[in-house]
Design brief:
The chain is mainly alpha-helical. It has helices at about 5-15, 20-45, 50-65, 80-90, 95-100, 115-135, 145-155, 165-175, 180-190. InterPro entries: HD/PDEase_dom, HD_domain.
Length: about 200
């Protein structure tokens, strides 16, 4: 993106505001999945070259910044409002700020744009896929399969903090079967396994 509102700057903000290593990884994984939907949508719109790159960057940046204020301001009264206010003062694009507001149910922000829908759809699922990888003996996302993820979703004791209805509801918002949604995010995370710390360990 132009005007200095880049992925690199977004990642730096995430790391600067976030002491929790797992929360930084969450931002990276949500960004990875949301970016994959940016690519699909840019292709559907027939974009190419610089417009394609700028379009996809918005999706990646929204993922990086959606929880960047959470470590410092975890209450419902403050997150994501404090972060959005800071970003607005810095001049970040409004469509990214709206998507960040819309990822939280309690803000009342409508999920209108494709970016809004993609960010919401990827938030809980990326965390669930990470949990699925970490219970594998290899601790590798490469060993996670869609069918296994669907099975784990039915196990209420597994990763119980993850809202299953947000995963299924996110797929509905995007207008695709939940299996396709899982597959899209799984492939995106597998492609960046090392960056996400999910490449695994020797068994």
């Amino acid at each position: 993106m132009s005007d200095g509102f880049t992925r690199e700057r977004a990642k730096a903000l995430l790391e600067q505001w976030t002491a929790s290593a797992s929360l930084v990884k969450h931002g990276l994984s949500v960004s990875c999945c949301t970016e994959a939907y940016g690519v699909l949508e840019a292709e559907r719109l027939g974009l190419s070259g610089a417009p394609f790159d700028a379009f996809v960057d918005k999706y990646a940046i929204a993922g990086l910044l959606h929880d960047f204020d959470y470590d410092r301001h975890p209450s419902l009264e403050e997150h994501p409002y404090v972060g959005v206010k800071f970003l607005r003062e810095q001049g970040w694009p409004e469509e990214i700020l709206h998507a960040i507001l819309a990822h939280a149910d309690y803000t009342g922000a409508g999920r209108d744009s494709h970016l809004d829908k993609a960010l919401f759809a990827c938030d809980e699922l990326s965390g669930f896929l990470t949990a699925c990888a970490l219970v594998k003996p290899s601790k590798s996302i490469m060993d996670v399969e869609v069918a296994g993820v669907r099975k784990k979703m039915k196990d209420k004791a597994f990763a119980r903090a993850v809202l299953r209805e947000d995963i299924t509801g996110g797929a509905e918002l995007l207008g695709i079967p939940v299996e396709d949604h899982i597959g899209n995010c799984l492939r995106a995370m597998q492609a960046k396994a090392a960056e996400l710390g999910l490449a695994g360990v020797p068994i």
